[in-house]
Structure formats: C-alpha cells, structure tokens
Amino acid sequence: MRIRFLCFQECPNSEQALDLLKRTLREEGLPDHADLVEVTDHATAEREGFLGSPSIQVNGVDIEASRANDAPCFGCRVYQTEGGPSGVPPVEMIRAALHGAKRDETPEFRDMSNKVKVLFLCTGNSCRSQMAEGWARHFRGDAIEAWSAGIEKHGLNPNAVKVMAEAGVDISGQTSKTVAELPTREFDYVVTLCGHGSENCPIFPGKAKVVHVGFDDPPKLAARLEDEEEKLNCYRRVRDEIKNFIAGFPSVRCGRKSE
Q1: Which CATH superfamily is domain 115-248 in?
Q2: pLDDT tens-digit series, residues 8-20
Q3: CB of 176 within 8 A of CB of 126?
Q4: What does the domain layout of the chain look like in residue ranges?
Q5: E-assigned strands of 63-221?
Q6: How far is CA 167 from CA 107, 164, 204, 240, in A?
C-alpha cells in the first residue's frame, strides 16, 4: 500500500494533517510512513492529481471519494467535517480510504480484510463507545477493525479523552458520529453498550451478530458530584471495566450488565 501526502511548502494545515495521518496508520496496524510530495506549481498539481493542500492519496487515489472526478487544482484544500469546513481531513475519511484500498501482498502490511469488524454502539457516541473503540484499536488492532457510532451524536466527551490518555490511549482524533455517517454497514459484531442503544439498535445487513453488554454512563454518575476528581473517578471506573471487556472480546460471553 502506497500512502502519499501532498502539500504546499507553507500550508498552515499540513503539519496537523500529517500527524493525523500517521496516528491513524499506527492505529490501523500499518507503518506510519507516507511519501511526502511538495507541490510548487500548476504543472506539478496536474501531474500529481493534486486536489489542494493538504491532500492524501492511497494507492494513487485521493481519500475523498466524492471528488474522484474533480480536475486537479493548485490551491488550498477544504474538507467537509461534522464541525464544518476544515483544512484537515476527518479521520473517518482517512480510515475509509485505507480500508477500501487494494492490499499489497508485501509481508509488512497486515490484511485488514481478515480482521473481525466490530461496531460499538451507544446513544450519543460521546463516551462509552468511544472508549471501547479506543481500547479495541489499542489492544486488538491486529485482529479487530473497530468503529463506534451513536443513535445520535453528542460530541466527543473531553473527560473520556482525558482518562483514556491517562491510560496511554489517545482517542482525541476520534469523532462523534451516527450510524448513518459510517462509511460501511457490514460488521461481524454490533456491540451495544447502553440500554437505550440496545433498545434502538438499527437493523444491520449481512451476518452482523448484535450483542449487548451494558456499562454505567459516566456523565450521569458524575452529574451528582461536585468534586472534579470524584467525577473523573466515575470515568476511570467505567474505562477500566470496558478495558477488561475488550481484552476478552469476542471470546467473552456478552450479556446485560446494567441499564
């Protein structure tokens, strides 16, 4: 698999976009290497199929599938994200491009098609499902292709990011999204992590096995507390419970734990 990162020399978004690309490659179990291409003029843009700075190509194809037929241009790049227009691509766009790319048979690359595809689902995709996705990528990235989503999207919970970082797992690049915004709906497992998510779980096509394992909602537990450290302890407890669950998944038996 060939990853190319194309940009202007003075592009203000290139450093952040390149950092995001490398982190995503590591999370997907791939070497965090990309060929860096500096675009200096219109002729280079035309030759490289450049759609604006910064751009990412996987096996010669731009990661933004909707722009596949656009003419090359020599200008700044704008991506559409859930937070509005941005000069940095959304992480899901990078992941979707990596998952859809044709795999080389070179031994250093793992074939993602052999991984178990798992969607972690809860109401707002802000805390528990985000933690589960992070743990799955951290511990089981060689075996599990992990996603998370919500019935709604409430934004990534900053306390969830904080306590996961304490445990050595960076989920700051993950985003809150609904099931409809996922680039794929073909999963081996759909794991619901809360009662509301279980009761409102969408129907998934194919062979997806839907299971439920409930965890307490950290924001709800923390709402009645005033001390900030005690609030964080609610997140830490649920974080560690989800960690233990992921460590045994999918061999563990899933069942209802709490609403």
Answers
A1: Response regulator (3.40.50.2300)
A2: 988 999 999 999 9
A3: yes
A4: 3-100, 115-248
A5: 79-81, 84-86, 116-122, 144-150, 189-192, 209-212
A6: 31, 5, 32, 9
Name the CATH code of domain 3-100 (choices 1.20.120, 2.60.40, 1.25.40, 3.40.30): 3.40.30
CA atoms of 217 and 247, how far apart (whole Å): 20
Tokens 């992480």: give the residue: 91
d(CA 99, CA 145): 9
- pTM here is 0.60
Separation of CA 223 from chain center: 28
* Other CB atoms within 10 Å distance of the CB of residue 59: 15
- The four Cα atoms 255, 148, 210, 193 give a dihedral, to 10 degrees, of 20
| The pairing of beta strand 55-58 with beta strand 61-62 | antiparallel
Distance linking the first and last C-alpha atoms of the chain = 43
Q: How many residues does the chain have?
A: 259
**What is the per-residue pLDDT across 129-164, written as a single tens digit (0 to 9) for each?**
999 999 998 888 878 889 999 988 899 999 999 999
| Phi, psi values for residue 9, rounded to 5° | -65, -40
Q: In the numeric block, which tokens belong to residue 224?
A: 């009645």
Run of H or E residues at 42: helix 42-48
Q: Which residues are catalytic?
A: 122, 194, 201
